[in-house]
């Protein structure tokens, strides 16, 4: 991309970037599938396929777990109500947390171009924070396991603030921690959650085209730009 590309112009107007984790930096679908299916086995419930899980990712682990429990109960031919899910939830959460932490990162891959993209953003002088809806206790070891932790001045999870994305609060708090204004802080994500939170916070937002967007076409989301790989920022900042 040339120095006058929309991406270069956007980069010249920001001091920092907030980067999403699942679906943006790391393809964690394999981790989710492994930990969830170990949990379901322990609870003597039927297994769930990766494609069904993909559509449930993005709104934090509590939402994921409730969606998975409702899905597998329904697959047994039961009429499912929220109360049945809540009965199973405490044991499911304890089991899921144990299994997720045991396999964290082992069935997950860093997407192509992520390291080049982060290096380029840093070289362009941007301060970087990672903001995910994943619990912080899952996010920090995953970043470490994948060698990505060193790029971020701050790492915040879905339990760091009172509300999660798509609420703007986590973005506003992350800007505060970075010492930047929302208008000069770029959100990089993979889903409508990230874009809605960014719009409401007043942050410019660019989405990757390869992540998880609740089973919807990501290019239909209201955003300032789309990239097929974070490495496009290397060309944009050159
Ligand atoms: O754990 C999730 O729900 C997804 O988290 P993300 O915000 O990093 O995409
Ligand atoms: Mg994501």
Features:
single chain; 238 residues; alpha/beta; Rossmann fold; DNA polymerase, domain 1; 2 domains; 6-stranded parallel sheet; two-stranded antiparallel ribbon; 8 strands; 45% helix; binds 2-phosphoglycolic acid; binds magnesium ion; carbohydrate metabolism; hydrolase; metal-binding; calvin cycle
Element pattern in H and E: HEEHHHHEHEHEHEHEEH
List cofactors, ions and other ligands: 2-phosphoglycolic acid, magnesium ion
Count of discrete structural domains = 2
From the coordinates shown, what is the CATH architecture of the largest domain?
3-Layer(aba) Sandwich
Largest sheet: 6 strands, parallel
Question: How would you write the strand order of the largest sheet?
Answer: 5-4-1-6-7-8
State the end-to-end CA separation: 9 Å
User: What is the assigned CATH homologous superfamily of the largest domain?
Assistant: HAD superfamily/HAD-like
Task: Extract low-pLDDT stretches.
Answer: none
Give the integer mean of the pLDDT values: 95
Number of helices, counting only DSSP H or I runs of 4 residues or more: 10
Percent helix, as a range, is 40-55%
Let me know the number of strands: 8
Examine the coordinates and then state which fold CATH places here, giving the name of the CATH topology of the largest domain.
Answer: Rossmann fold
Helix-strand makeup class: alpha/beta
Any idea what the shape is? elongated
Strand content: 5-15%
Organism: Acidovorax soli
Pfam families: Hydrolase
Cofactor: Mg(2+)
Enzyme class: hydrolase
